[in-house]
User: Fold Alcohol dehydrogenase YqhD (Iron-dependent ADH family) from Peptoniphilus stercorisuis.
Amino acid sequence: MQDFIYQVDTKILFGHDQLRNLSKEIKKYGNRVLICYGGGSIKKSGLYDKVIKELEENDIFYKELWDIEPNPRVESVKRGVEIVKKHSLNFILPVGGGSVIDCAKLVAAGAKVETDPWKIVIGEEIVKEALPIGAILTIAATGSEMDKASVITNVKTKQKLGWASKHVLPKFAIMNPEYTYTVPKYHTSAGVADIMSHTMENYFSLNDGCYMQDRMAEGILKTMIKYGPIAYNDPENYEARANIMWSNSWAINGLLGSGKSTAWSVHAMEHELSAYYDITHGIGLAILTPRWLKHVLNNETVEKIATFGKNVFEIEETSDKFEDANKAIDALYKFFKDEMHIPMTLQELDIDETHLRDMAKATIRHKNGPIKGFQTLQEEDVYEIYKMSL
Ligand code: NZQ
Ligand code: ZN
Assistant:
């Protein structure tokens, strides 16, 4: 296990009745709030009204940034920064999913500089400070409420890029599994796939001596396999929604990747799919992951993939490790397809060969060279994995 420093001090307020703590938590940091939300799901569900009531009853001044897109765009960030500056706001309150929280993070950092916030995303402007953020999570997927990362899309340059700063780690997150009851089936499945992908990106590494992290990862994957289909079929099942929601945070908050080098391979490839075709992140991950595992299966990786099959899918061990590993990959594919009803080919998302080569090139370019993950991926490998996914 490599040396590491771990500090994630987001306060989590989990469960049914935590919204009553909202104003108290905000007032520790500010009293002039930018509420950020997406295309209206929080208005339909009634959560918007509850948040507004809580702020108004506690004399908290607020302005709103809405219509934040799934795969949030830098233009939305700029709108947010403008509102913050115009009204001297001092606290950012995203109410939504990863897209809303990621946008809010760049607003929080962008409000502290005079330059174009896109420069932060491409690393030309270093974040030295940010406005404090508190998140109200409405969909379990990205773990953005408890991590330092944010992913922003620039449609003009066809780029969807991640950036991270400790300054945008949310101060607190309100996580009520009931808020996720209204998440559509498609996005419930995409969220489960995203959580599993974060876990697998951390899990699939070689000989790192991180036994404990790997057993925790298997626990999260088993949780998804148990509760993903329940949430899909019975959206108001509290136990399922709660287990998925809490897993969503721990898949990506640094615990599983501590003590390891993990270059995330599938996410790098998926971000190009989203950048070119604006697809749902988790769906792209579900399609790519089994193909990636097939592509990297070799003498070096077979043991780990077979272990994954045994510990996560309870596949009986045989004397043939390759057979075991292939069964594991097939089980993962079947889970996504048969249990979570995810379209498992790119063609089903209307993606054909046209941009595969460009996306493969962009994947490598955005990683500044080959992806040195579970196995090193060159442009040709990425291209091959895209082709296998058609
Ligand atoms: O916009 P609204 O109307 O709110 O609808 C959203 C959106 O259409 C809807 N939704 C959310 N909560 C709902 C709901 N509908 C009904 N009831 C609710 N309670 O779901 C749709 C998807 O929302 P979005 O926020 O886009 O989903 P998600 O949380 O999966 O976020 C995806 C974004 O996060 C990035 C992805 O790349 C993508 O841009 N990621 C962020 C990461 C991070 N910050 O660490 C890591 C991830 O790997 C990922 O890359
Ligand atoms: Zn993800």
